[in-house]
């Protein structure tokens, strides 16, 4: 496979000046990832600061109510800052520190990546600049205030759809002007090479733990793994350990939003076309004029019109299956998990829960489903309640 590519997807399509910097980062990262001191510090922070390993939890009540397969949750919501994002945030910030960078630049949608980056920047004494779309700053006000409390500078992006796509573009533009002193810590397995690989490497701790934990709990591998996919970092994190084991079914859940029309969803693999986007080649949702379309999801972390290049490849070779869940199904799962198990999921994660519940009902009782609960829903409660849903019944 060509360096930096997954099949035809991936690569790096950036300016010569930025390419020079990315080549330097790749070289230094490849040297550092096996460095004993780097690994020791990373593992220490994961255990004593972040709170790993996260539990693998059997949902007994949910399993009994739904019927069919056993349902397990990988509790990434129990990480410090409340989501899987801190897995790569700690790794990327540590990388910046070892590269003698003084500043981190990042984008965020739901605010969880931004919050994780702001947190580790405070811990490591790095300057922090977070780019966030105007719509998302309004939906995720609590996370915005947390980031400010941690010392981050928030750049509100007011152009286009005012969401994750524009935040990513704004962050990359800012980074291009500060290459000497800063590093861009991307929030998913997207962007030009080597970012998708770096993020996947740091996130792969999820799948490694699942494999070990389920062996202890059930003495077997999972039959199905289900994870939501926007850019796709939490999904690649849990998929990676099982890619070669074809007996384990991998399912990515995209956001169908309000429906199948362009601009009403962010189901990139289902509706996207192959093109170069944000400095890499992937699947992209486009409008009838051939322009990158606005993406939509009730979950701010999923409203991105592209997808990680490895996900595009896994779909193409049929190693992973990609399905869709709409806003209403997501909200139903949000309420169901909250009431039955006392776990309030992030709206992003609720997409995976929604499909996992449908899947469980269709399977025999000896089958096991692991759903990656990528984040907790504290950030979403006010927004969900503002929609006027009937949560009393």
What does the model show?
- By secondary structure, this protein is of the alpha/beta class.
- The chain folds into 2 domains: 5-46 and 85-200, 3-Layer(aba) Sandwich (Rossmann fold); 51-82 and 204-386, Rossmann fold, CATH 3.40.50.
- It has 16 helices and 14 strands.
- The strands form 4 sheets. The protein has a 6-stranded mixed sheet with strand order 3-4-14-9-10-13, with helices on both faces. It has a 4-stranded parallel sheet with strand order 7-6-5-8, with helices on both faces.
- Helix 9 crosses helix 11 (233-239).
- The longest helix is centred in the N-terminal third of the chain and has 17 residues, at 16-32.
- The protein is globular, with a radius of gyration of 19 Å.
- The termini are far apart.
Q: Which characteristics define this entry?
A:
Rossmann fold; 2 domains; alpha/beta; 393 residues; 4-stranded parallel sheet
**Biggest sheet architecture:** 6 strands, mixed
> Could you give the count of β-strands?
14
In whole angstroms, how far apart are the ends? 53 Å
Count of domains: 2
Ranges where pLDDT stays below 50 over 5 or more residues in a row are none
**How many helix segments?**
16
Mean pLDDT across every amino acid position: 95
Instruction: Work out the helicity level.
Output: 40-55%
In the CATH hierarchy, the architecture of the largest domain is 3-Layer(aba) Sandwich
CATH topology of the largest domain: Rossmann fold
Query: Proportion of β residues?
Result: 15-25%
Shape: globular
- Reading the helices and strands in chain order gives EEHHEHEHEHEHHEHEHHEHEHEEHEHHEH
Biggest sheet: strands side by side, in what order?
Answer: 3-4-14-9-10-13
- By CATH reckoning, the class of the largest domain would read Alpha Beta
Instruction: Classify the secondary structure makeup into a structural class.
Output: alpha/beta
Radius of gyration: 19 Å
């Amino acid at each position: 496979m060509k360096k930096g590519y997954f099949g035809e997807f991936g690569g790096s399509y950036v300016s010569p000046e930025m390419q020079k910097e990315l080549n330097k980062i790749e070289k230094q990262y490849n040297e550092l990832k096996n460095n004993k001191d780097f690994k020791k510090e990373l593992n220490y922070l994961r255990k004593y600061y972040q709170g790993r390993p996260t539990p693998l939890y059997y949902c007994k009540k949910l399993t009994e109510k739904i019927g069919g397969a056993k349902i397990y949750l990988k509790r990434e919501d129990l990480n410090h800052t409340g989501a899987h994002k801190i897995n790569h945030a700690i790794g990327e910030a540590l990388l910046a520190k070892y590269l003698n960078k003084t500043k981190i630049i990042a984008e965020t949608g739901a605010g969880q990546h931004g919050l994780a980056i702001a947190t580790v920047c405070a811990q490591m004494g790095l300057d922090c600049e977070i780019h966030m779309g105007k719509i998302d700053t309004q939906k995720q006000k609590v996370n915005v205030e947390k980031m400010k409390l941690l010392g981050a500078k928030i750049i509100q992006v007011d152009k286009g759809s005012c969401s994750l796509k524009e935040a990513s573009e704004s962050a990359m533009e800012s980074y291009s002007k500060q290459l000497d002193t800063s590093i861009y810590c991307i929030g998913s397995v997207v962007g030009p090479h080597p970012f998708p690989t770096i993020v996947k490497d740091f996130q792969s701790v999820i799948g490694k733990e699942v494999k070990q934990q389920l062996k202890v709990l059930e003495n077997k591998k999972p039959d199905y793994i289900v994870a939501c996919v926007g850019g796709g970092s939490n999904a690649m994190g849990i998929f990676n350990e099982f890619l070669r084991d074809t007996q384990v079914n991998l399912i990515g859940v995209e956001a169908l939003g309000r429906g199948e029309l362009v601009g009403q969803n962010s189901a990139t693999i289902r509706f996207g076309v192959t093109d170069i986007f944000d400095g890499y080649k992937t699947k992209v949702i486009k409008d009838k004029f051939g322009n990158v379309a606005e993406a939509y999801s009730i979950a701010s972390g999923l409203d991105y019109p592209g997808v990680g290049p490895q996900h595009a490849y896994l779909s193409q070779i049929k190693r992973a299956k990609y399905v869709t869940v709409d806003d209403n199904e997501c909200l139903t799962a949000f309420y169901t998990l909250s009431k039955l198990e006392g776990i309030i999921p992030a709206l992003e994660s609720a997409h995976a829960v929604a499909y996992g519940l449908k899947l469980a009902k269709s399977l025999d009782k000896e089958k096991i489903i692991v759903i990656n609960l990528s984040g907790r829903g504290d950030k979403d409660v006010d927004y969900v309640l503002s929609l006027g849903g009937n949560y009393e019944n």
